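Quick check before the chapter quiz. The format below is the same one you will see on the exam, so make sure you can read both the input and the output lines.
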Amino acid sequence: MSDNSAPKTELQKAADYWGKESAKNPNDAQAAVNYARNLKALGAKQEAMQVLQTAHSVNPSNKQLNSEYGRLALETDQIAAAQKLLDQAADPVSPDWKTVSAKGTLLAKQGKHREAIVQFEQARMLAPDQSSVLNNLALAHAMDGRAEKAETMLKEALAAAPSDERIARNLSLVLGLQGKHDESKLIMAKALSPDAAAEDASYLKQMVKSQPASLPVAQAPSSKKVAQVSGKSSISTASIAAPATARAAPGKSMVPSADAANLVQKLADGYQKTPADRPVDLTPKN
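Here is the expected output.
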């Protein structure tokens, strides 16, 4: 039986519906946003980008459209376009948490971690139940040298979303960076599938030679691929290790400044690039 004869899923039906609605009225920004979201959920990101680009040309000041377009641009690493669109989408009177969170991700990818923290804190106030925001806030703190604070936040996020492997992997990484390898492996065993846990555990065992004794660091893993985020990006640690007797100051990362710069760049790849969106409104029922 050919694929053409297979019954369509509800998501495919929704995409078809909103595609027709958008084609009937190219000026309808909401139809374009709905169509693009469903295309994105189907994995057709480039087609979704084209839909939003066309809609933006006739609705350049629509904040919802600019937010959707900007977040997709960010997800596809079009940083300059994302920055412009997210700035246009910003609404100081009635801020949208997805837009604010995406702006935080953008700032983090630019290495502006403290500015990113401000955005994620605002997004958290707007959407306190969104574990993805807390996850990103925690990573921003980790990237700014506060691994212990990141650990606390990631544990809170994982408690709220215990089945989210992305958060579990991030927590495992942050624990590993502080030399807490036993706890890191325990998190993996509880939250990850056996194969994923075994893969991550093998990376955590890959230690390299110690840093000079003057660097206040504890042993940390060398990882090729530790945290999957939205099933796309990964977090990789720099090759870091040092005497196990070293201790970090309270609230500070165990990562030395020389390695932190590399780690920050790699951690940025692990950010959730856009907050999770469920496909918008399926085909309306008569």
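If your answer matched, good. The radius of gyration is 21 Å.
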